[in-house]
Amino acid sequence: MSTPHVLLGLLSAGPSHGYDLKKRHDERFPQARPLAYGQVYATLQRLVRDELAEVLDVEADGGPERTRYRITEAGGRKLADWLHEVAPAAPFVANDIFAKVVVAILAGPQGASGAYLQAQRAAHMARMRELTHIKTAPGAPLSSVLSADYALAHLDADLRWMESTAQRISTLEKEVRDS
């Protein structure tokens, strides 16, 4: 996810403080990693530097200063360009699970790769139960439901891959050890 573009998108709804942007990000993208405040403010500084956002005003109200930002015309064009880009399919898949299976074959005792797959499967199933609970909770916001659906589809694909790999693990072990 492109944090600068997401923050520009959130700013397109109207001027906002960094604190509110972080809060709205975490609400709108519930399954994404929450943004750190430092990341929000560093990104806002870069957006201002690049003239994609600007400082609207600074409020003090007897407490710490609160800066309100707004998107610029250039920021709106940059956001529109980004929204029209089709996200390319990844040319290579970085798969930690597959890497661990191969390393377990190389470095672990006989059967370590199969045991790892079983443990990983259990972890995936637990996460799928959590996501199912989130998406079926009464009154769950649609953004949470759709985010959970996306994550569930990916976890399901991983599970299917794990099942296929488990069925062929002895062949993989022989291939890895013999090469």
TrEMBL record:
Pfam families: PadR (PF03551). Gene3D superfamilies: Winged helix-like DNA-binding domain superfamily/Winged helix DNA-binding domain. SUPFAM superfamilies: Winged helix' DNA-binding domain. Residues 7-80 form the Transcription regulator PadR N-terminal domain. It comes from the Bacteria. PANTHER family: NEGATIVE TRANSCRIPTION REGULATOR PADR, TRANSCRIPTIONAL REGULATOR YQJI. This is PadR family transcriptional regulator. It comes from Streptomyces polyrhachis.
